Amino acid sequence: MPVGRVVQNIGGFQTILTEEGELLTCTARGRVKRARGEIVVGDLVSYVQGPQGGVIEAVEPRRNLLRRPLVANVDQAVLVFALHDPEPSLLLIDRFILGLQVVELQVLLCFNKLDLVRRQDACTLARYYESLGFTVVLTSALTHEGKRKLLSHLYGLCSVFCGPSGVGKSALINMIRPDADLITGEISPKLRRGRHTTKAARLIPLGRGGFVVDTPGYTQVDLMGLDRDALLRAFPEIAARASDCRYRSCAHLAEPECAVKEAVARGLIPTTRYNHYARFAAELAAENPWERP
Ligand SMILES: Nc1nc2c(ncn2[C@@H]2O[C@H](COP(=O)(O)OP(=O)(O)OP(=O)(O)O)[C@@H](O)[C@H]2O)c(=O)[nH]1
Ligand SMILES: [Mg+2]
Ligand SMILES: [Zn+2]
After folding, report:
1. Which of 2, 13, 21, 78 is most buried, with most CB under 10 Å away?
2. Ligand 1 midpoint to CA 102 (Å)
3. pLDDT tens digits for 266-288?
């Protein structure tokens, strides 16, 4: 049976990308839906060709599943924030990074709308996150600055673009894949209408291998189900010092002889980051009582 990748899932119809590189509109057998729950963008599916389009017979086991945005089998999250309009919030950026740790994903930070700010301010923000251990790309979907650097991080991977609405996720994907709207045109005329305000996830193949997934913007980041390991993955600069704490189980909150708090006092870890860490730790403890330190 041939296998395809779900590129879009709207109103009970799945559009899949076939091995031959063609788009095929499908419906799923009832038992497939019951067994797997919802079919989501990024799923690999086996299908048969019927007279009315394709019929999905099975969903291949998923490598991973992200709930927000809802997408399967991704390697990397490209977290997009605008440098201006909308103004970035350090708290929201850190919250997004944490929310994405529900599955172990590589996070690439992309600060867009570089054309709207002073270069120096953009570089200060980029250096701040780089010093914590993140990879950062500065881009402008308007001037195409940063295009090549962004692309160099995307080849061969399935990258989901996420972030608040209006930051330029779709604009960036149009920048790197100008014929993306050609593909959307073939998918559904209905969608063309919402092109600048994304209503549903859409997977777009890259010319030289890999995929990008455009998703609708959101700002409500749910921390439900995240554990302490996820928290430490979101704060690598804190994780890096944890082994020097007096107590192995140190949560770096109220414990004495805490190497993390000492690093904060000495200015080696930004106070802003530590405050966000403490705030999220308290939230996780309230939402997931079994995670209480
Ligand atoms: N000046 C400037 N404007 C940009 C840039 N990138 C995007 N925009 C504009 O910002 C607005 C929002 O861009 P979109 O690509 O629709 O944003 P989005 O993140 O996809 O938003 P949602 O689909 O709602 O989540 C549009 O008017 C774009 O033209 C940029 O680099 N510079
Ligand atoms: Mg969009
Ligand atoms: Zn500690």
Report:
1. 78
2. 27
3. 999 999 999 999 999 999 998 87
